[in-house]
Amino acid sequence: MKKNRSNKLVSWDDHLDKKYGKHGTATREKYEGEFEAFKIGVLIQEARKQKNLSQEELALKSGTTKNYISRIENDASDIRLSTLMRIISEGLNGRLKLSVDL
Known about the structure:
434 Repressor (Amino-terminal Domain); 5 helices; elongated; mainly alpha
């Protein structure tokens, strides 16, 4: 029979500190930047599905390609701010809100 591992619960921040380093370190900043890009792709995908649009329909409405929409949704592509704004406004009839945390 296997021995049970410790059942200590660890906070999410402690987990990230252990895996990627403390806030401000290069590896943690890289992780957090990539996570933000991932979230943008998920938000676009959820909004597209809520509007009952295919990737191709969203691409046509926003002046890009189905392949580009797919790459954004699957976190495989960096996205220009102007393109993001066009996808949100023209493709999804939405409004982009940004914030800066210092």
